[in-house]
Amino acid sequence: MKIQILGSGCKKCNQLRENAEAAARELGLDFEIEKITDFGEIARLGALVTPALAIDGRLKLAGRVATPEELKPILAQG
Amino acid sequence: MPGLFAPYEQFARWCTERVFGLDPASRLGSSVEFFLYDVPKVLTLLLAVSFAVGTLQTWLQPEAVRRMLEGRRLLFGNIAAAVTGIFTPFCSCSAVPLFIGFLKGGVPLGVTFSYLISAPMVNEVAVALLWGLFGWRVAAIYIGFGVALAIAGGTVIGLLRLEKWVEPFVWEVPAAAGGVAELTLRARIAEGWRSSREIFGKVWPYIVGGIAAGAFIHGYVPEELVMRWAGPGNPFAVPVAVLLGVPLYANVAGVLPITEALAGKGMPLGTVLAFTMAVTALSAPEMIILRNVLRPPLLAVFAGVMTAGIISVGYLFNFVL
């Protein structure tokens, strides 16, 4: 699966990326992480607020840094 | 709301006299008492206000706001957008995705601007600080003027029909629909508490530092100096305060306590309000971010309308009210 982190590259996006990586690794998922910083692309994925997280092009979470614990069920669903 | 903060006042007096053995009428004593009174009071208010806003915000996710504002007419839409902005502060890094998402969702340009002005200007940190430092009336006046300015600014931009100055790529982004998850009341409160702790953790050092600087001014800077530079006799105090506020983004927590001390020595309230609005709504980083979606003429109109509006608020308050 492709985990996409949406945001302009501020501190919060990096934190979300780290949390997502930690959660995915703990779940033993086969994943790659993509950072999306282009505003057009962020909007195309439907995020109104950043940081946001999408999986394979589907928006899953927007506007906050979720903890690894919160991210696990989202990532497990795929 | 008299009496609400009386325990804080007693605590500060008691600490100053008994713990530090200082006379509250002395310079050092009045500085110490000022610090010990303001820090706990402002931090308490910050926790309470950001918890309330963080919880309310879960009912007003940007998705829901966009649906509410879709296709709204001028003025009515602007009013709705500006009022909604009170409860939905956002970080300036979200300004661009919000802008694109709103326009693509069919929210008119002027209405989008009302939201973009009101949401960052009327934020929980500024409101909690104004309430703690200047009282709830000043906080309410700030919210009122902030909303009025957002309505007026967005309406002007809407009437000027400046859509041609939005970067063309914005119109080419395909519209996307994101889902909004329904939350239980318990989850909303948990979210409010989480956002309150996050804001508190980020802001408290600025508040303590700012109040320490304010306490120094309170005890040591002579009144005549403040009156000469920032007092009602200086007709340029308002525009100068606005210009000073532009580079101070995100430091509203650190600079407002300093203005409180200055206000205590004669700086008029309109100047304080204009300065606070400039810090929160006219930030250089936000302008740079917005440049991604606004062509320079529209950016200039936006900055010009805001500057004129904020300066008018300052003068209106100082000279008319």
Explain this structure.
The complex is a heterodimer of chains A (78) and B (321). In chain A, 42% of the residues lie in helices and 24% in strands. Chain A has three helices and four strands, in the order βαβαββα. Chain A has one domain (2-77): Glutaredoxin (3-Layer(aba) Sandwich), CATH 3.40.30.10. The longest helix of chain A has 17 residues, at 11-27. The mean pLDDT of chain A is 89. In chain A, α1 links the parallel β1 and β2. Chain A has helices spanning 11-27, 39-44, 68-77; strands at 2-6, 32-36, 52-55, 58-62. In chain A, α1 (11-27) packs across α3. Chain B has one domain. Chain B has 321 residues and is mostly helical. The two termini of chain B are 22 Å apart. In chain B, α4 (76-87) packs across α8 and α6 packs across α14.
Q: Can you describe this structure in just a few lines?
A:
The complex is a heterodimer of chains A (78) and B (321). By secondary structure, chain A is of the alpha+beta class. In chain A, 42% of the residues lie in helices and 24% in strands.
Structural class of chain B: mainly alpha
Order of helices and strands of chain A: EHEHEEH
Main sheet attributes: strand count, strand direction, barrel closure of chain A: 4 strands, mixed
SS element count, helices of chain B: 16
- Poorly predicted runs of chain A are none
- Domain count of chain A: the total is 1
Count the strands of chain A?
4
Q: What is the CATH architecture descriptor of chain A?
A: 3-Layer(aba) Sandwich
**Amount of beta strand of chain A:** 15-25%
Which H/E pattern describes the elements of chain B?
A: HHHHHHHHHHHHHHHH
Average pLDDT for all residues of chain A = 89
Poorly predicted tracts of residues of chain B:
none
Core attributes:
heterodimer, A: alpha+beta, Glutaredoxin, globular, B: 321 residues, mainly alpha, 74% helix
